[in-house]
Specification:
Elements: E1 5-10, H1 14-23, E2 32-37, H2 47-54, E3 59-60, E4 66-67, E5 73-75, E6 81-84, E7 88-92, H3 104-115, E8 119-123, H4 132-140, E9 144-148, H5 157-165, E10 170-172, H6 174-186, H7 199-207, H8 212-215, E11 223-228, E12 235-241, E13 244-249, E14 254-255, H9 257-295, H10 299-325, H11 333-342
Parallel strand pairs: 1-2, 1-8, 2-5, 3-5, 8-9, 9-10
Antiparallel strand pairs: 4-7, 6-7, 11-12, 12-13, 13-14
Helix pairs in contact: 1-2, 1-6, 3-4, 3-7, 4-5, 9-10
């Protein structure tokens, strides 16, 4: 039996890379391909149609309990994690990981847990670092790690993070990836037993499905950190996988350091907008009170309210300047993916 389970993760710039990859695969390709591409939660995705038109393999948004078949492409639908079970796929509206649902890590982790050495994990173009922890899980179970050459990727964040944190087996440009995957899919899997599934991997895989036992388990993966979850406000537990540090809260939201920083920047920007709104309202109210005081001949009160309005306006100008300096969070992959699909 060959490496017949291929899991692929991509973000910004991923549509073009996936299309080029699929275009070069033959109709008798001997492995099932499962794909997570970051897309907005409530937008339609045309990716299965794009990939089916690009190549010879059928592609679909699967439903839960869809059987895994070689030569088929399964694409995560919007707002649902795509997970691998023994012989089929399932969908879950579990907690966001790295700010996404679907996210790459849950797919890779579930495939590694079920199929061990038979899995090939592939990271393509994208920003930040979703997929790194999942690719590490694939390697920990004896699977193969393949990464698009960062110099060949439209966005090199995800490939570079994988290369820096995982003992990657192959780094190739997209034009060479189809032949590599075909060769690996036809190579017999080693008879050496895969390393057992760690308790941590099992718990984290179950969390993607909001499994009650995993959620209520008293021994959480990792140790409590000084940080709180940007999504729910709960304590984040720090998890150390080899050289990779990750964070996960009690209900399952998960973050790499880069995505945690980006999420905190999102919250910081939200706070600036709240502050701007409050200062503008305060200035407006003070001006109205000053005008009313002058109408009533209360000059001293009018001057005080005018000073308050001026002070609030000056503070608002400072906040506005911060907001106009530039993007705080460095995101943008969802917008780019939407553009990729619209232009495909």
């Amino acid at each position: 039996m060959g490496h017949d389970i291929i899991v692929i993760g991509a973000s910004a710039g991923g549509v073009e890379a996936l299309r080029e990859l699929v275009k070069a695969l033959t109709a008798d390709f001997p492995a099932a391909i499962l794909i997570v591409l970051h897309i907005p939660a409530y937008s339609a995705s045309a990716l299965p149609d794009i990939l089916a038109r690009a190549g010879l393999l059928p592609a679909q948004h699967p439903s839960s309990d869809t059987p895994l078949q070689p030569g088929n492409i399964y694409v995560a639908p919007p707002n649902q994690h795509l997970l691998v079970k023994n012989g089929f796929v399932t969908l879950a509206r579990g907690p966001h990981e790295n700010g996404h649902r679907p996210a790459v890590d849950p797919l890779f982790r579930s495939a590694a847990r079920e199929y061990g050495r038979r899995v090939i994990g592939v990271i393509l173009s994208g920003v930040l670092d979703d997929g790194t922890a999942g690719l590490l899980a694939v390697k920990m179970r004896g699977g193969i790690a393949v990464v698009q050459d960062p110099a060949d990727a439209l966005y090199d964040g995800m490939p570079r993070s994988a290369i820096e944190n995982v003992d990657v087996d192959y780094i190739v440009p997209i034009e060479a990836m189809a032949s590599l995957l075909t060769r690996l899919a036809n190579e017999p899997v080693s008879d050496v037993p895969a390393l057992p599934v760690s308790e941590q991997m099992a718990v984290e895989a179950d969390m993607a499905e909001l499994d009650v036992e995993a959620m209520q388990k008293p021994d959480r993966p990792g140790t409590p950190s000084a940080f709180v979850c940007p999504d729910c406000g709960g304590t984040l537990f720090e998890i150390q996988d080899a050289h990779l540090t990750r964070y996960r809260c009690r209900v399952g939201h998960a973050f790499s350091p880069e995505t945690l920083l980006a999420a905190q920047s999102d919250r910081l920007e939200d706070a600036f907008w709240v502050a701007l709104r409050a200062l503008e309202e305060s200035a407006s109210l003070s001006r109205r009170m000053a005008a009313r005081a002058r109408e009533q001949g209360h000059t001293h009160s009018a001057l005080r309210h005018e000073e308050q309005a001026q002070a609030a306006q000056e503070r608002a100008a400072l906040v506005r300047e911060v907001l106009l300096i530039g993007t705080l969070n460095g995101r943008g992959e969802a917008t780019q993916n939407t553009r990729d699909e619209l232009t495909s």
